Amino acid sequence: MNIARAQCAASSITPETRGDDFRRKGQIEQAIEAYLDGVAAPPSAALCLKLARCYEQMANYAEACRWALSIVDAGDDFTSWQAGWALFQRNAQKARRPAARSVKVALLGSYTTTQLGPMLCLAAGRLGIHIDLYESRYGQYQQDILDHKSGLYAFSPNIVVLAVHEGDLHLPEYSQRPEEEIRKEVSRWTGLWRMVTERSRARIVQHNFALPCEVPTGHLTTRLSGSRYMMTQAVNMRLGEAAANAVSLVDCERLSALIGKQRWCDPRYWNMSKQAVALEALPLLGRHTAAVIAADLGLSRKCLVLDLDNTLWGGVIAEDGLGGIKLGQGPDGEAFVAFQEYLLKLKRKGVILTVCSKNNHADAIQPFEKHPEMRLKLQDIALFVANWESKPDNIRAIAKTLQIGLEALVFVDDNPVEREIVRKFLPEVDVIPLPEDPSYYLRTLSDYLLLETSSLTAEDTERTDQYRARAQIMELEAAAGSIEDFYRSLRMQAIVVPFDASQLPRIAQLIGKTNQFNLTTRRHGMAQLEAFVRDDSYVHLALRLRDRYTDHGLVSVMIARKQGHVLDIDTWLMSCRVIGRTVETTMLEQVCRRAAQLGCTSLRGTYIPTQKNAMAADAYAKHGFERVGDNEGTEIWTYDLTTKGLIANTFVTPVDSWELADDAC
Amino acid sequence: MELHDRLEEVFRQVFDNEALTLTNEMTAPDIEGWDSVAHINLMFGIEQAFGVRFKGNELAEMKNIGELKQFLIGKGAG
Question: Is residue A559 within 8 Å of A540, Cβ to Cβ?
């Protein structure tokens, strides 16, 4: 085997072409083995098809089905999906394979849906749903619904999918009375919904309307509430409001933007066969529609099982320590923070977060308790498992403790080996294949469709948040009368503390990078900073800022040295993302306090002008410092604490830890 | 792969028939399942596989396999 592989490598034959050769010779078992050698994660659609065909030839219909369905995970290629569906149908019959759920779906279209049907069925099959499909004749969705003797009602569907498109909206190109048109069109749809609900037990899944990419009135359109374009947006919004909990919506407007509107609809295929959604976009639409149906059937996943090292932060906590892990600084560090923030959003909509890590418990909880950039806190984690047992064993224990099925779990781990082990030993658990680059963790998770929710509570939470945000913005606009009112309305809090080891990389980064609000532009390195921390004559302050909307993280740094009764400011800088918020005053307020504690009677400041830091030129003057001298372009400023008193800032509240008011998050 | 083989591969996927072999004289009635829906799927499959774009009219006009090949060669897919 090894020799054979070495020969393959030498002659650059891939496992796939090797498999092709075996197949041509009729050696199917050897072909399967070769193909399986070539399976990457996720496997290519072509390979999935070949494997499915091989297993079909071997009369192993269950495996043939499995590989036909895995095409769904291998990209959105229409032709492969089409072939996969044909293979699946044929083999599923022979395999007599029980699906987790069987459901009767009526697909009612305003355009040709012949090709959408198979896409929907294949995507649903991947989610364990068998669809028994009814299709209305071309464009007959209204007739089917209105005629109580129609094939639709004879079919008695569980789900009615309204696959409709923008061109079908009864809206004029321009209206003097848009409100009236919108109301009429919305009530046409809600009327159809009511009729379906009265005449059947079906739940409705409605596609909303993808805005077209051709807009005759151009950018002016957005100022014309009477334009068809703007009325369509209003119809989408009103349909969402009217749907509430009774009707599910598939956001085709978002999907069309996701794939690109010029790809979503291809005029050639529309003109030839009335395909309002291009074949290219149908797998995407099929996947999302299937996911919404799965959520309606209660088949969504409920709980994420998260790895720690290189999943929630970069590096290995047990080896790199609190200051060494990547979190909050550098591109990767920022990516992990963004990923954590997204996880928090999922938690807020009701997804349960758990941790499963190969670590000592004491090491594993350290970042949660002590790292200032951690967004996830221990109380966000429903169950925290860190030990040296195998992951499948731990995951089983998690399901048991939380009293949920394995089929409610999703495993999130950067390590492909762990993912493969979980796939193999716990096939019920779904596994998210995280990409290598943490920058794309968030997007990979957001592309994962089985966390769709359709329950009332989840919708309520979201709606409440949206209304709250809207109210806050309105409040802010109303308060925008004076700048002071604006500052107050932000409800800023600051945590100002001496440097500690975990913050040093971020501090070094700020010192290395900050050019604008930087009084002396002295680029101290890590070694220098560590020396300051050890030296008692130095005062060093790191400031974190939070307002009612966001945690801005560590944004300002000051280093000062006690020289007799004078506290001399060596370094003072602030990130430009918080300029114009009075943060600089808070830093001076805090350094005044430290100075007083140390028995200093005055502050001394230095401003070294550069080509970039003009913004900070008046920082001292503004706060009552007096300019006492110049030295080769360097300005020296002083502030007498005994006569002028301590500097104070009423707009930012200094706190020891974040104080969360009801509306602060 | 030769143009002929690549084209045959697309036909095999679209018509779910691995035994399908193409000849230049073949037209739609010669291939089982080549109806108007399959035609659309086929044209799309060819576009994707060869990285070409048919004009709106060309989509409907394909008469036989030989003609289709000439078209693809004309589009620079040869």
Answer: yes
The reply to whether A277 and A327 lie within a common domain is no
Q: Of A267, A299, A331, which residue is a domain's last?
A: A299
Q: What is the ipTM of this complex?
A: 0.90
Instruction: Find the farthest-apart pair of alpha carbons in chain B and give their distance in angstroms, rounded.
Output: 31
Answer yes or no: do A117 and A258 share one domain: yes
Neighbours of A455 (CB within 10 A): 15
Gap from B17 CA to chain A (nearest CA, Å): 9
How many other C-beta atoms lie within 10 A of the C-beta of residue B53?
11
Answer whether B40 sits within 8 Å of A86, measured CB to CB.
no
pLDDT at site A516: 85
Report how far residue A133's alpha carbon sits from residue A151's, in angstroms, rounded to the nearest whole number: 12
- Across the range B20-26, mean pLDDT stands at 91
For A658, other C-beta atoms within 10 Å of its C-beta total 12
Residue B75 pLDDT > 90: no
Q: What is the DSSP letter of A383?
A: E
Residue that has been written with the tokens 């974190």 in this structure: A544
Q: Which residue of A has its CA nearest to B49?
A: A79
Q: Hey, are the CB atoms on A78 and B48 less than 8 Å from each other?
A: yes
Round to whole Å and give the CA distance between A210 and A236. 9
Which residues in chain B have Cβ-Cβ distances shorter than 8 Å to A273? Answer: 36-37, 40
Amino acid sitting at position A54? C
Say if B5 is an interface residue toward chain A (CB within 8 Å): no
Asked if residue A468 is part of any domain, the answer here is: no
Same domain, A505 and A644: yes
Distance from the Cα of B14 to chain A's closest Cα (Å) equals: 6
DSSP code, position B38: H
- Which residue positions in chain A have pLDDT lower than 50? 1-10, 456-475, 477-479, 662-665
Same domain, A187 and A319: no
Q: How many domains does chain A have?
A: 4
Which residues of chain A make contact with B18, given a CB cutoff of 8 A?
53
The rounded radius of gyration (Å) of the Cα atoms in chain B is: 11
pTM of the full structure: 0.73
CATH number at residue A150: 3.40.50.1110
As a whole number of angstroms, the distance between CA A37 and CA A19 comes to 9
Q: Secondary structure of chain A: what % helix, strand, coil (to 5)?
A: 50, 20, 30
Largest CA distance in chain A: 97
Q: Do B60 and A53 touch (CB under 8 A)?
A: no
Determine whether the interchain pair A115/B37 forms a contact, defined as Cβ–Cβ distance below 8 Å.
yes
A278, closest residue in chain B (CA to CA):
B44
**Topology annotation, domain B3-74:** 1.10.1200
In a domain, A425, yes or no: yes
The partner residue sitting opposite A272, judged by closest CB among B16, B18, B60, is B60
The dihedral built from the CA positions of residue A232, A236, A241 and A242, taken in this order, carries a sign that is: positive
Task: Say which of A79, A269, A272 has its CB closest to residue B13.
Answer: A79
Compare CB distances from B40 to A53, A267, A273 and report the shortest one's residue. A273
Tokens (6 digits) for A430: 């779904």
Q: Which residues of chain B make contact with A268, given a CB cutoff of 8 A?
A: 54-56, 59
Q: How far is B45 from chain A (nearest CA, A)?
A: 6
Strand partners, B27: B64
User: Each residue of A469-487: b (16+ CB within 10 Å) or e?
Assistant: eeeeeeeeeeeeeeeeeeb
